[in-house]
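Researcher: Here's a chain I'd like modeled. Treat it as a single chain, no partners, no ligands.
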Amino acid sequence: MENKEWYNKLKKSQLNPPNWVFSVVWPILYALMINSLILVWNDKKCFPYCNAVTLFMIHLAFNLIWTTLFFSWKKPLWSLIDIIMLIIFTLVTFYEFRKYNVYASNLLIPYIIWICFAFYLNFFIVINN
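Model: Modeled as a single isolated chain. Structure tokens:
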């Protein structure tokens, strides 16, 4: 409850979507990410291991830690730094996936767009709070 109160008191962008949007968008993006990873990992040039899988796991770690940094620790600046790293590793993953499967790489495009939008929302909070 304390985290929700903290979040609700923050000055947020007018483009900030209602909370329910996040619970719809994220499962779709995770499904796309998983399918993308499976396509690359199953490629005979990648299986059982390739650098693209490692990059995906690194990007995923940055993705997962963002929530803790922002909501649990209430550190918007740290989460902004994290999301910058997330974007960098996602873009590198995107280009690395293209070497194995263009379709798998393209599945990451909605996710890249969303995390760039998330960067904007996070940046707005850092600047205005």
